[in-house]
Amino acid sequence: MVKPQVIALEEHYFDAEVAAHFKEGGPEARLPALRERLFDVGERRLKEMDEAGIDVQVLSHGAPATQRMDAETAIPVARRANDKLFRIKNDSGGRFEAFAALPTADPKAAADELERAVAKLGFKGAMIHGLANGVFLDDQRFWPIFERAQALDVPIYMHPAVPHPAVVEAYYKDYLKDFPGLLTAAWGFTVETATQAIRMVLSGMFEAYPRLKIILGHLGESLPFSLWRIDMALQRQGNRSTPFRDCFREHFWITTSGNFSTPALLCCVMELGADRILFSVDYPFVLNPPATKWAQDIPFSPEDRAKILSGNARRLLRL
Question: Which residues carry out catalysis?
Answer without folding.
Answer: 282
